[in-house]
Amino acid sequence: MTADVFLFWFLALITVISGLAVVLMANPIYSALCLAMTMISVAAIFVTLQAYFLAGVQIIVYAGAVMVLFVMVLMLFDLKHELQAFTRGRATGALKIASVGILSGLIVGAVTIGLTIAGRSSDEVISAAAAGGVVDTTRGLSEALFLKNIFGFEALGVLLLVIAVGTVALSRSKGGTHARD
Amino acid sequence: MTSMGNTTFEIVINTIKLLAVFLLMVQAVPILVWLERRGSAFIQNRFGPNRVGPLGLVQLLADAVKFLTKEDFAPEKGNRIMFYMAPVFALIPAAVAYAAIPMSVPLKVGDYTFLIQGYEINVGIVFILGISSLAAYTILMAGWGSGSKFSLMGALRASAQIISYELALGLSIVGIILLYGTFNLTEMIHAQQGIYHFSAFGYTVAASWLPNWGIFYQPLGMILFFSATFAESNRLPFDLAEGEAELVAGFHTEYGGFKMLMFFIGEYGHMMIASGLMATFFFGGYSIWNFTPQEVYNWCYGLVGSEQIANVMNVVLHFLSYNIKFAIFLWIFIHVRWTLPRFRYDQLMDLGWKTMLPWALGNTIVTAIVIFVTSYFVIS
Amino acid sequence: MPETNMITTIGAEHYLVLSAILFSIGMAGVLLRRNLIVLLMSIELMLNAVNISFVTFSYYSGKVEGQIMVFFVMTIAAAEAAVGLALAVSIFKRFKEVNIRFFEHLKG
Amino acid sequence: MPIGGVIFITLFIAAFGTSLIYLARWTGGKAKKTSQAKFDVYECGLPVEEKKDTKISVKFYLTAILFILFDIEIIFMYPWAVNFRHFLATGSGLLVFGSMMVFLLIFIFGLWWEIKSKALEWD
Amino acid sequence: MNQQALIAILLLSPLIGFFLNGVRFRSTNYVLAGSIATIAVLISFICSVLLFLNLVDLPPEARRITANFFEWIAVDKFKINAGFAVDQISSIMILIITGVGALIHLFSIGYMHHDKGVTKYFAYLNLFIFNMLILVLGDSLLTMFVGWEGVGLCSYLLIGFWFNDSAKAAAGMKAFITNRIGDAAFIIGMFILFMTFGTLNMHELNMLAPTIAESSWLGAVTLGTMMLFIGATGKSAQIPLYVWLPDAMAGPTPVSALIHAATMVTAGIYMIVRLNGLFIVAPNTMMVIAIVGAATAVMAATIGLTQFDIKKVLAYSTVSQLGYMFLAVGVGAFGAGMFHLMTHAFFKALMFLGSGSVIHAMHEEQDIRKMGGLRKYLPITHATFFLGWLAIIGMPPFAGFFSKDEILWKAFSSSQGHILLWAAGVLGAVLTAFYMTRLMALTFWGKSRVDKSVHPHESPWLMTVPLIVLAILSVVGGWVGIPHVISEQIGHIPNFWEHWLEPVIRKLPTVVEGAHHDETMLEWSLMGISVGLAAISALTAYIMYTKKEGASDKVAKAFGPVYQLVNKKYLVDEAYSAGIINPLIEGSKNLWYYVDVNVIDKATYKVTDLVRGGGSFVKSLQTGNMQQYAMYIGIGVVVALSFVLMR
To answer: Are chains C and B in touch, 3+ Cβ pairs below 8 Å?
Structure first.
């Protein structure tokens, strides 16, 4: 077992465990911290896939910004008495679990079947990747981003602007009947 | 290859090196604490610690003993897990990020080349920014885990401050990235070696009496970056998180003993990262004034006449050069702390959002325009 | 191929299965949790799972487009988190709790 | 990228920190409960008050949201900045420069709006 | 400097100006707004000049600078780049647009300074310049169409600039809707051409056109070009879609000068010239174009004879002159069409600005019956207007003479030409001379009929400087295209114009037979006839309107019903109302009353009941529980995935 393989299993384990913890932890703050952990290990997985810059962005944006926001809001709310983590519905629970089960089964099935039916053995793909190689991902990334996807890029700029304006407006709203504070 | 080397020897050396970088950081903290206390005393016309040992140097050991013998305390109302985890996590971002800063030219021993840094990362800037942005968690965990209002307030303030200044920090180095076209710190240092020279409109301008350092291209960027790092490491004049008059001691109100010390290590670690990055981005990193490493090596070789020794000497000289710059910035951190008064919180936020961010933006735009104009229009 | 291949040789399918598992976990979180903010976090989890598969495809096909997609997904995810949390704060201001059930008031 | 090293040092520090805490606990001992006040959180000597809803300004979370949005815009500038000279050299400099300037215009407009609408005002 | 960069700056400068003025559109600081807009256009003008000089440096066959900024649309084979091309034709156009545009911007600062919406006005003007440049530079029909629509929008915005006046707002809408009809045809034309050639790139279309053999008298190319021409009649105000242009005079006068005289309305001619390689293989279309052009030229000129609104006269004159240009391109004289386009841009912009100056001086009075004798109050305006008048009636050696003469000669001699077309052209010239002289006489000469309360005054320098520059251009503008017969007499001045356009213009053979000498004689005599008749006509008008009081009324009485008909603009608007618009409205009313209420509504009520019944069932699924919704999505994904997998 080489270091790479060990690394993958290690990271996959951390990712899955902390991902499970997000869903299972009763206290939302623990969930948030576990999610941050997941984000970081996903970033590490990106590194094993040679997406270095994306890994950095993943950490900066997700772990360093989005999750900080989550944690901050949760601390703002100070929900100490979270007695019940899961919803209780009229007989919907079983169906939900069933659908999750089927869904996960199907996704796993789709991936494995898709890969085997296509007749593409993984070695072949790996060699192709090694030969073609994502040599300088950041350069390729910026070429694709700024030459091919300019409109998407500018549209995202506008989206962010709209969100910024919208959240400010939303935070100004007094929440219906809530008295002004 | 994901890890540290190809042979067992290399892996072992690299592991030891990593530990050494970490220990270097940890052992620097007592010295800095001593320096800070003595320095502040001199600035404020006091004596400072001067009883234990010569110049009070052994004070550190006394402190350590005190830390060790304090009883371990956690408030009942708080969240114990968070309360204990926070100081441990305070250490991680600082050390992980610091290990990515190159401290000297690579050392060649036989067939092996050892970098004088924890590890080389090809997206170094992004990595360091990302890792150090994780520091906000530590603070939030500490504040929330203490279960105290002061702690929570302090934590929220501190994290809001950190993220606010992270914008200015991130934007102030876009100019530098534009200039050098790389995320890699080593390449960035390479670009700053030698004499001052740049090309514009197809001509090359050079000045042999100046080094090719970033500060001469990005003075505004340097000021913004340095100020933002003050806020990032929660140092005065930006230490609103622990404004004594308002919040007792901020997020570490409830901490004491070793846990407190670990927060200190984290804070000083951030200072060190900031100083190291300052040196790397704007002052040529480990490079020596306007000499390239090759010139320094040749000089060493001429002096001793042995390749091996010249190599080592070269590494040592550059390491010294780096550390001199490093120490100067650390001293500026300390000096500023004892010289400037604290901001009010609204002033702090105003400074971050309404002053530094627009200026950093302007700096970026101007840099981009200058680079664009000078290289797009070639006067032949 | 020997039996141990699955464990010692890491290929695209490993990453994809990991992504699928993570996605399912996120989906379960969306379906089962009652705290709105945890729900949002579960959505982030699902988006991360998708990102893993995008990067995987990008790596194994040698094309950078997948990474662009991840970049966009991250932006959208952050925007979504911002708006979602703003909504959560609005709800919290009114009900002092962030149960997903409060959204039932919105039905027509 | 030596991710192995990063993980190693992370785990090492975690272990190091934890052991330090245990060491201190061993040498210093667990705190003895001599009175309830000792274990209360610090509130300047007054009895601990527990209010149901602690009023914390919503500004904090608003700041965090705005930080995210601007942070992403800055992140978008990184790949642009690092390859700007490359683009200039390959002849697509004008397009890339122009598109980023438009993006920055949007950025500046957003910042200007936030400042003008007093969303960044702390009192 | 990089040529692509020049094109980018050329295009972006007005756009930036638009944004700078657009974001602060409530401001009334006319100096700032005007300077921003004018400087933006001036920068564009400088870029145009530099590009032109770059073109001159290139060898004649290679005079084409292209800039593909990015791939705009890529759907299978349908690939459109955001590509722009500067060649011999478009370089002339950008010079006219930005040059005349800059002058008119300058004029506008003086003209609009009292207006509340001055910043908005300049923003619109800059947007117009930007769109016009897109139209002119776009190297595919679709890119051109973007500008085509953009200028339509700006035209609408500027005609209805004073939208508080409902008549003016209605004029804007009329222009927009009339253009819409043409645009629809333009789009259909693009479809046809894309189906036929598989490309919309105009350069490629010109190259590919000769390879397509037209099978019948109405083949794909003929149909496509015909559709494009209908689009052009909308934009360039030709029969039958000219009705919007006179009404468009509701906008500010500089706008009329820039958009409705110099630039936008010439877009149709420009488009045809740009696609000359395509149009030339469709002789039927060419014939239609020539006939429509000649008819418009004469008809609009006759209406111009009877109008009393100074701007309306100029508007009909514009329609008439555009008819000339279409006549020119219709007989295959693309170069002459472009030539007249340019000279017309100079003198008509001059006259419009002059009329603006007059209106400004008369405090918004536009009726020429209430003017007269303004020469002594407005010396500069009069002098420049006088030069413009000489140019438009085609007196040598002013600009209009050369271009008009060239058109008439080509109408006579080209293989597509006909003596009737020539005759119509001459008739148009004669009428033009008459009504323009009438306009001059009633406005500037003779006795003053100015109201006592009005004190005319000369305009500020901001307004007179553009007038002077345009007057100079109106005089010398024609000298770049002196015909051979004249240049032979005065020392072989080369015909720069023909020389410049030669590589991109396909020529039709001249059919006049006989020796070179005969041809020269013929040309001289035709020239003499047209100039002579125009001079006589102008003289008649001069005498009629200044020396003999009441002579005009007598003539009007003598013609009686004809005069009334012409004065009412041949009742075209009324005819459209009665024939198209009212039936539509009435028909719609009937449809609404009988079909809608009784049939459709009843049917929909039944459907509603059904849906309501179904809805109340489905409503039970809508619990408001988001997680249930998410579950439905999940189940949907499962079903879809299993379908994919089982297949």
So the answer is: no
